[in-house]
Design a protein that fits this description.
By secondary structure, this protein is mainly alpha-helical. It is built from 7 helices and no strands. It has a single domain, classed as TerB-like.
Length: 148
């Protein structure tokens, strides 16, 4: 009986780490969605995703590589984006969601051009994560300025 109680507490202590990984997976999956939106996977876009995820979640190189693989798999299997966007709404403030949107713009801009499919997808994601049009535009301007 004590071993079952111990196991229960051990599971509960693992939960925050699992939740953090799930949130990181959701953000990474949206970035991958943008990278794949124009049907061209560019090394600069992948590098931008890698750098953003490494910085945002303070992960090691190996952890980011694994997360990108897992997020790519999850994104490819997803029926819709709700499973990712709902986590972002639940766990990030408006300011953090705007910052994520800026990171999405940076992924789209990484190859030197923003394809209309990428812009359409970012606009859709902005609505899904509760970012208003003015903030959407400001995130784009901020991303462009940061790239310069």
């Amino acid at each position: 009986m004590f071993s079952k109680i111990k196991a229960l507490f051990a599971e509960e202590s693992k939960e925050p780490e699992k939740k953090e990984h799930t949130i990181a997976l959701a953000v990474t999956a949206l970035m991958i969605e943008i990278m794949q939106a124009d049907d061209e996977v560019d090394a600069n876009e992948r590098h931008t995703i890698f750098t953003a995820i490494e910085k945002r979640f303070d992960l090691s190189h190996a952890e980011v590589e694994t997360l990108i693989e897992d997020a790519t798999d999850a994104q490819n299997k997803a029926m819709d984006l709700h499973q990712f966007t709902s986590l972002i709404i639940d766990h990030f403030s408006t300011e953090e969601r705007i910052d994520i949107l800026k990171e999405l713009w940076m992924v789209a801009m990484a190859d030197g051009k923003v394809d209309s499919y990428e812009e359409h997808m970012i606009r859709k994601l902005a609505k899904l994560i509760g970012v208003y049009h003015g903030e959407f535009i400001q995130a784009k301007i901020d991303a462009r300025n940061e790239r310069s």
